[in-house]
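$ ./design --mode recover --in tokens.txt
reading tokens...
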């Protein structure tokens, strides 16, 4: 081989069959590696498609509501006459309802801040790193923590007589207990669904449930002096 100046590439140039080889390449040849053609799978941005459909449905629903229902606007503001009750916009009525029970710092800063902080911090804990069901691992330990938190929160709301927030809390706690008694192999589709829900799901569910209930009470059940009134009695 040392006397010959013409070197050619070997016939077997398939890298999959001969991964280890030495090939001498001269200026008149080029290196080539034969590979098998791989199958290509056509992908589709399904998440983007679902988001586009959701945006279109929401836009159509908002346009339909705006055409059918009039905006509940009152007259021009009169500095000499404060309406009774003075209600905030609907998206703040939940906080205004909480101000009826708690001090402003607790209702307006502490409680919403803790919920948002929990939703930010929870994904960084091992309990939710794979978005597994809350009670699928370390069930007894997590049940003890759940009982402690649920009991403490219920007693706190009961001490301040916040029954409007206590009832949704007990309902969510009951559903969580049902999830703790369920498994992914349950015969019921509902039980399988609940068993697979992570901690962030339960925190967000409780928060939204409380927000909807408190907003509905502030909107339909509060009259002059923020007293309790039935919707058919007027405000």
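writing sequence...
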């Amino acid at each position: 081989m040392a006397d010959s100046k013409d070197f050619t590439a070997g016939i077997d140039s398939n890298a999959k069959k001969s991964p280890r080889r030495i090939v001498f390449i001269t200026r008149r040849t080029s290196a080539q590696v034969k590979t098998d053609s791989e199958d290509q799978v056509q992908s589709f941005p399904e998440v983007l498609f679902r988001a586009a459909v959701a945006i279109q449905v929401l836009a159509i629903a908002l346009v339909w509501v705006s055409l059918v229902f009039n905006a509940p606007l009152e007259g021009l503001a009169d500095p000499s006459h404060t309406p009774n009750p003075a209600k905030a916009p609907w998206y703040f009525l939940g906080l205004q309802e909480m101000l009826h029970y708690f001090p402003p710092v607790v209702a307006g800063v502490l409680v919403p801040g803790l919920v948002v902080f929990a939703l930010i911090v929870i994904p960084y804990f091992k309990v939710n790193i794979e978005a597994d069901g809350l009670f699928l691992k370390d069930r007894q330990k997590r049940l003890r923590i759940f009982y402690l938190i649920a009991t403490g929160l219920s007693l706190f709301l009961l001490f301040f007589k916040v029954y409007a927030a206590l009832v949704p809390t007990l309902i969510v706690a009951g559903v969580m207990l049902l999830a703790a008694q369920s498994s992914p192999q349950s015969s019921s589709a509902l039980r399988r669904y609940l068993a697979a829900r992570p901690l962030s799901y339960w925190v967000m569910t409780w928060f939204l449930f409380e927000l909807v209930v408190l907003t509905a009470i502030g909107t339909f059940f509060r009259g002059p002096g923020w007293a309790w009134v039935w919707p058919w009695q007027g405000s």
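exit 0
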